[in-house]
Automatic annotation (TrEMBL):
Biased composition range(s): Low complexity: 1-23
GO molecular function: ATP binding; ATP hydrolysis activity; transmembrane transporter activity
Keywords: ATP-binding, Nucleotide-binding, Transport
Name this protein carries in UniProt: ABC transporter ATP-binding protein
Taxonomy of the source species: Bacteria, Bacillati, Actinomycetota, Actinomycetes, Actinomycetales
Signal peptide span: none
Record carries keyword Transport: yes
Region (Disordered): 1-25
Domain ABC transporter residues, every copy: 34-277
Keyword Hydrolase carried by entry: no
InterPro entries given in the database record: AAA+_ATPase, ABC_transporter-like_ATP-bd, ABC_transporter-like_CS, ABC_transpr_LolD-like, MacB-like_ATP-bd, P-loop_NTPase
CC annotations in GO: plasma membrane
CDD domains cross-referenced by the UniProt entry: ABC_MJ0796_LolCDE_FtsE
Length: 285
């Protein structure tokens, strides 16, 4: 066990009570009015292709419903991250169209895309890209300041509420280098949520965490989604994918499987894990 994972374990056990509260508070902070949902997909990929030296995405079509939790899986190099970046406006496709709530991202100017990413999407990566020059509270509040829609005190209050909900209140003034990987990832989820996004995008958000911290992050993701925020994750890990209600498998830049698992419940975890594992095995993953 590494020093980092030991400190994650300590953090996760000392924060277990907070984590239970966490979910309620996230819910309050990020409750979406489900009645506002429409039948229009919140994200839609139409005939997406991407060429580097050769073609890596081959005409992908996916419609993601508002409020759903989608896991994208597949072998290394199959195009998962490329597709996620295109879906979320971090990258542009070579061909095809991406729509967010019916609005085309593909032809948007970079300035408008950046504004959309800032206000409507929240990103959680395997390695949290927090700024070393800022304390955790300021890192979390920063996207709120950048959006510039609200008084700073309100943004800071929301950042504090999110930190409390994730059990990391005591780390407000900490430097990025002073906290464990699990705590850092919880801070990066707070940052992703600060502008109350419609969609949380994750690229292996538990990939660098020990199992206790990973489970905590997954519980948080599940709660975010349970309140109506759409969650789209890339993952290699079947224990992450079983939390999703839909699993897409990408092999050689094509969607080979699109499987509806239904809502996660812990009682069905083993059965769902077996289903996802056998699906991946059938694709040679
Ligand atoms: N910026 C780039 N320039 C050139 N080729 C790239 C670039 N980004 C990705 N690729 C190539 O595109 C293909 C798909 O890469 P991508 O990272 O999307 O796969 P992945 O399924 O996410 O892989 P992993 O699971 O290992 O992260 C790979 O062959 C990769 O080498």
């Amino acid at each position: 066990m590494t020093a980092q994972s030991r400190s994650d374990d300590a953090a996760s056990s000392s924060n277990s009570t907070n984590s239970n509260d966490s979910t309620k508070q996230i819910a309050n902070n990020h409750a979406k009015d489900l009645r506002k949902e429409t039948a229009m997909p919140i994200l839609e990929a139409i005939d997406i292709t991407k060429d580097y030296d050769s073609r890596v995405l081959h005409g992908l079509n996916v419609a993601i419903e508002a409020g759903s939790f989608v896991a994208i899986m597949g072998p290394s190099g199959s195009g998962k991250t490329t597709f996620l970046h295109i879906l979320s406006g971090l990258d542009r496709p070579t061909g095809g169209t991406v729509k967010a709530s019916g609005e085309e991202l593909t032809g948007m100017k970079e300035k408008d895309l950046a504004a959309l990413r800032l206000r409507r999407l929240g990103f959680v990566f395997q390695n949290p890209h927090l700024l070393r020059t800022l304390c955790l509270l300021d890192n979390i509040a920063l996207p709120g300041f950048l959006a510039g829609d609200e008084p700073r005190e309100e943004i800071v209050a929301r950042a504090r509420g999110l930190m409390a909900s994730m059990g990391i209140s005591e780390l407000e003034s900490s430097d990025v280098a002073e906290v464990s990987g699990g705590q850092l990832q919880r801070a990066s989820i707070c940052r992703a949520l600060i502008n109350d996004p419609e969609i949380v995008i994750g690229d292996e958000p538990t990939g660098a965490l020990n199992s206790a911290s990973a489970a905590q992050v997954l519980d948080i993701m599940g709660e975010i989604r349970a309140r109506g925020t759409t969650v789209v994750l890339v993952t290699h890990d079947p224990t992450v994918a079983v939390r999703a209600d839909r699993v897409l498998v990408l092999v050689d830049g094509k969607i080979t499987d699109d499987v509806a698992l239904g809502r996660y419940s812990p009682d069905a975890a083993a059965e769902r894990t077996a289903r996802v594992t056998s699906l991946l095995a059938s694709r040679g993953v």
